[in-house]
Input
Amino acid sequence: MSEDNQKKTPAQGVPLNEDNYTHNIRKFHERKLDRRSFLKTMVGAAGVFAVSTLPWGAIAAKHLAEGSKRVYPERVIGSAADLPVGEALEFAYPGEHDTALLVRLGDGEYKAYHNACTHLKCPVFWDKAEGDLLCPCHHGVFDVRTGRPKAGPPRRPLPEIELAVKQGTIYATGVKRYET
Amino acid sequence: MKRSYRGVVYLSLVLLLSIVCTQQVVNAFFYERYALTLVVAGLNVLLFPAALWLYRRERDAE
Output
């Protein structure tokens, strides 16, 4: 094997046969994030945050221009005769993925809430024995009469659905404005 | 030249305000307080030129 061949494919760990050992030191990009780049990054981040709020502002302006009251469709949930006192019925309102829970508390007393737990959106169930709405994920408990959290991790009430009972049929007529 | 970190501190504060405003916009929108949403979103948009001005001032001082 000649000297030239050895130079092309050096053995592992054997230094190259050359005098200049500084060929792989690059000075130009030594300081990738200096003071000025850091400041630029912060300005850019502020810009990103500013731009990201624009859609929210635009939709809010649209809502303000259209009027404060949202209009919901009236939809049949079920018949009062099919729902005995103390029982619950799951339905979806206003969209097909907005699941909600209707509870019959008394003869003419109905309560309905969106049943996504305000903690981590687990479905909330009607606990008939305890008379509470129960989220089984982390044992969040909601008061069935007000929707307010009674125990567990949730801190915000469940959004309430407005109901109307006409001739033995229960209708969902809207979602109450969410207040805390 | 010994550098002053005042500009960096101010910019950090502006960026913190941006983050707080963004969060408040989302919260106000969720609670359907649309007027508040508009106000905070406007403030957030105004924070960007403020950050830019702080950056330019700091750059020119260097």
